[in-house]
Design brief:
The chain is α+β, with helices and mostly antiparallel strands. The protein is built from 25 helices and 17 strands.
Length: 622
């Protein structure tokens, strides 16, 4: 796990490359390296690297060249099945000088070219220079677990392609400027994140998940090498014994993510996903696992007691961390700079704090991201599975109410019912996805927007599932191609790497995702039971309390904060005379959101946090 940065363009002062990599120093405090390699026409490939040492501590330094010097790479991430691929390459006559997964990528590219990419089970973003063909390849893993940002710019002498693990690295290059992309801001107001491939910076894009970019002779070509399994699910055959098949793939996914030459641990909440990982680590023979949980002072819904109970029953070495609101809000500007976007999910902040605590004890952490999106764990999945075909104006049946109540704790049932009622009264699928997890609706945005007119359309892929998809598969396809890569996975990467710790997500294994896509809907959701296959398969390993506990989610008391400690800071920030947000949203609307929430007339917690985070971001960068 590391940070990379560089460019393809005219040679300049090598100090610039170090400046770019220093911008992501937190991603790799254990070492650094830079190199400039020739391309055609006097252009160079400048490759920079910051290293967080996880595998082959002595031999994995980067930039790394192949034994014959033909290929050179800077690489961020881990290839979990590198041992299996290395053995396959050895059988083909490949030569290795190290035991690192980095060198496996070099030799895999020599053997198979771009066809090596779907073979990798891992998380990766890399830049690879081929001296024989004078080409450079930028590649990103299948689901987009590792970020890779790119910008094409025109300098006085030559075009330049700049890239890096974080936007801050690109902004360190003189050809890249901090210019707000208003179209992205407009979309953010609904979605609460920047839908790919766009960012908040005009001209800076995300290399899309499952894609690679190839530069040759000044020509840039981008190619998708992998598609989310839900797009091709009809062509997959369900296993005859789903429980046994799940255990085979899940155990392998966890075991591969336990490969490290440094100490590792796991996040542990009160829920199913993290407990499933920790119990499986123990099942696979891990020594006493280090686990870490977080909660909030004076929070009656805190997960800490339940997480501690799970830790005792599984037998982990457990650490609990309890925070106050003020502990988190002070972090917002710093973490905003790391993310290069608004911290629109309040949970980003405690994840950072939990990562910082874990980093005192371990260097690798396993986490439950992706389980809900692969195996259907949200209330929206329950409702869409049973009622999605009937969505339209004025609709939410008594059955829908019963399903939500059955899958929710009493403290959140009424909130979920309100959201579900709005969602299922919305016929358009894209707008329904906004209601489930977003902030304001497109209709409301149209009423309050006072910024310039926008016309850019969203990438259609997340809204274009395979023909004949069920309502549940349609939602899961959206989750896997938009919600995960552009929000949750980006969050996990930034918040863990900001503390120089590596986060690994077994539920995001590509083979496990392919297996999940073969399952009939009733193996994901049966009645009101979510993630049915996970519960049935892991029942013998898990405490009964984990299996029966209703989903509460990692909910922060944001609504209460905006009526208490955040009320004045939010008002002062958003309504200030120099408020940047008020250039785009009517100031009277901002005041109305604040007043209605403070008086408990409406719950605007999502919208208020989104706007509070947005204003913080705009002030940091613009």
């Amino acid at each position: 796990m590391c940070g990379i940065a560089g460019w393809i363009g005219p040679p300049v002062d090598p100090g610039l490359l170090r400046k770019m990599t220093n911008a992501v120093r937190h991603r790799g405090p254990d070492g650094e390296g830079q190199v400039m390699l020739p391309l055609s026409g006097g252009v160079v490939a400048a490759l920079g690297h910051r290293r967080l040492s996880i595998i082959d501590l002595a031999g994995g330094s980067q930039p790394m060249s192949s034994h014959d010097g033909r290929f050179t790479i800077v690489f961020n991430g881990e290839i979990y099945n590198y041992i299996e691929i290395r053995n396959e390459l050895l059988a083909r006559g490949a030569q290795f000088r190290t035991n690192s997964d980095t060198e496996v990528i070099l030799e895999a590219w020599r053997a198979w070219g771009a066809e090596c990419l779907p073979r990798f089970r891992g998380m990766f973003a890399f830049a690879l220079h081929d001296d024989a063909t004078r080409t450079v390849v930028l590649a990103r893993d299948q689901f987009g677990k590792k970020p890779l940002f790119v910008a094409e710019r025109q300098t006085a002498s030559e075009p330049v392609l700049v890239f890096g693990s974080e936007i801050s690295a690109l902004l360190a290059h003189p050809a890249v400027h901090s210019e707000l992309d208003v179209d992205t801001l407009y979309q953010y107001l609904c979605w609460r994140y920047a839908p790919g491939p766009f960012t908040f910076f005009r001209g800076i894009h995300k290399l899309q998940p499952g894609s690679y970019l190839m530069w040759h002779g000044g020509v840039i070509r981008t190619q998708r090498y992998w598609t989310a399994p839900e797009e091709t699910a009809q062509h997959r055959t369900p296993p005859t014994d789903p429980v046994a098949a799940f255990l085979d793939v899940f155990d392998e996914a966890v075991k591969m993510r336990m490969r490290a030459d440094v100490p590792l641990g796991a996040f542990l909440s009160s829920g199913l996903d993290s407990a499933a990982i920790v119990a499986t680590m123990a099942h696979l023979g891990a020594a006493k696992v280090r686990t870490f949980s977080i909660g909030f002072q004076n929070d009656p819904g805190s997960e800490l007691p339940a997480a501690a109970e799970t830790a005792r029953e599984i037998g982990t070495a457990h650490t609990s961390l309890e925070l106050a609101a003020n502990d988190l809000i002070e972090l917002l500007p710093m973490l905003t700079r790391h993310r290069g976007a608004p911290i629109a999910e309040p949970a980003d902040l405690p994840i950072y704090m939990l990562s910082a605590e874990a980093a005192k004890h371990v260097k690798v952490i396993l986490s439950g991201e992706g389980s809900d999106e692969m195996f259907a764990g949200y209330p929206k999945h329950v409702v869409e599975r049973h009622l999605g075909r009937l969505a339209g104006p004025g609709f939410l049946s008594l059955a829908g109410h019963a399903l939500l109540i059955a899958t929710s704790s009493a403290s959140v049932a009424s909130r979920r019912l309100r959201i579900a009622s709005r969602a299922m009264s919305t016929r358009r699928f894209d707008e329904r996805m906004i209601v489930w997890f977003g902030a304001i609706t497109p209709a409301e945005r149209g009423k309050v927007w006072i910024g310039p007119s926008v016309c850019r359309q969203l990438d259609a892929r997340p809204f274009r599932p395979a023909a004949g998809s069920t309502p549940l598969r349609r939602v899961l396809h959206f989750d896997q191609t938009s919600w995960l890569p552009d929000n949750l996975l980006e969050r996990m990467d930034v918040m863990t790497m900001a503390t120089s710790i590596e986060g690994r997500a077994p539920f995001m294994d590509v083979r496990l995702a392919e297996f999940a896509s073969t399952l009939p809907d009733n193996y994901r959701i049966k009645g009101g039971i979510t993630k049915r296959i996970v519960r049935e398969a892991l029942r013998p390993r898990l405490p009964q309390s984990v299996l029966t506990r209703r989903k509460n989610g990692f909910r922060m008391p944001v609504a209460e904060w905006f009526r208490g400690p955040l009320r004045n800071p939010a008002s002062e920030l958003l309504l200030a005379s120099d408020s940047i947000t008020s250039r785009y949203i009517d100031r009277a609307t901002l005041r109305r959101y604040l007043d209605e929430h403070a008086k408990d007339q409406q719950n605007h917690e999502k919208t208020l946090w989104s706007l509070f985070a947005l204003e913080t971001f705009l002030r940091e960068f613009f």
